[in-house]
Amino acid sequence: MKKSTTGLLIGSALVVGLSGCASSASQSSGQAGASSDRSWYQHPAVCGLAGGLIGGGLGYAVSGSSDEESGAATGAAAGAAIGGLLCADRTPEPVAPQCPTYGDVPAGVAVDAQGCPLDSDGDGVPDYRDQCPGTPAGVEVDAVGCPLDSDGDGVPDYRDQCPNTPAGVEVNALGCPESLVLRDVNFEFDSAQLTGPAQQVLNGVAERLVNNPDVRVSIEGHTDSRGSAEYNQNLSQRRAESVAAYLAQRGVQSNRMRAVGYGEERPVATNDTDAGRAQNRRVELDEWN
């Protein structure tokens, strides 16, 4: 048998074998997803060696008698390179999650620069699941992005002046079933000057009113029966106005408030005892229709 024929037969056999290895390697890469799981004969080094043998055989077969060695060497080098490439690991690099802190992002969802779903109001619930978009900053929300309403009265907590209304009780826009007595809103003796603790109470009232911009309120001052009716009327009016002025300083629009002094006209307890008179000296908050 001639040299060329022998070389070609050997080369052909090795080509078939190498092709099978390369094909197996490609399939293994796609299934296992890691080069460490591939068979030994699928390793690029093994394929390179096989390719070198193939290339050397082919180079030897096609070379003349005077350049057999150089032909075989050139063929071996080329075959080794080709074999290594055929069995190279083509497993795609794992793709990092689009938003590692969120998880899988549904297709078509608007995302930010980091690939995370947009949360326009910053409440922790992405826009595509948020049933109450535009929640003010810092307001606690439920799983669907709506402000909490702990007593279920239809007025969310951040607006509710009476957050513990019993279930089923009808309330006004302030979240209260009736006029709200502003407990601990007291004044200096015989004066309309608010005390420090009173201001702290009114800070919370003002915050909820600012968050409830469509509601107007009536601020009503009351006294006990000591002193003249005219004096008490005047004092209650000044105290109601003092509360309104403080709320305005805290951001409540003045045109949403009215101040009314009722003096001693509307007692809620007896004026014959200290405890009763203390209850009568009060400021109430009500919805102003």
Short structural description:
It contains six helices and four strands; from the N terminus they run H-H-H-E-H-E-H-E-H-E. It has helices spanning 3-32, 44-62, 68-86, 196-210, 229-249, 274-280, and strands spanning 180-181, 217-222, 257-261, 282-287.
Provide key terms for this protein.
about 290 residues, alpha+beta, 3 domains, four-stranded mixed beta sheet, about 40% helix, OmpA family protein, signal, cell outer membrane, Thrombospondin_3-like_rpt, TSP_type-3_rpt
Your description of this structure?
- The model has no long low-confidence stretch (mean pLDDT 83).
- Helix content is 38%, strand content 7%.
- The chain contains six helices and four strands; from the N terminus they run αααβαβαβαβ.
- With 289 residues, it is α+β, with helices and mostly antiparallel strands.
- The N and C termini lie far apart (113 Å).
- It folds into three domains: 3-86; 118-148, no CATH class; 180-287, OmpA-like domain (60s Ribosomal Protein L30, Chain: A).
- It is found in: Cell outer membrane.
- Residues 265-289 are annotated as: Disordered.
- InterPro entries: Bact_OuterMem_StrucFunc, OMP_bac, OmpA-like, OMPA-like_CS, OmpA-like_sf, Thrombospondin_3-like_rpt, TSP_type-3_rpt.
- Keywords: Cell outer membrane, Membrane, Signal.
Helix and strand arrangement:
Elements: H1 3-32, H2 44-62, H3 68-86, E1 180-181, H4 196-210, E2 217-222, H5 229-249, E3 257-261, H6 274-280, E4 282-287
Parallel strand pairs: 2-3
Antiparallel strand pairs: 1-4, 2-4
Helix pairs in contact: 1-2, 2-3, 4-5
Region (Disordered): 265-289
Organism: Halomonas dongshanensis
Subcellular location: Cell outer membrane
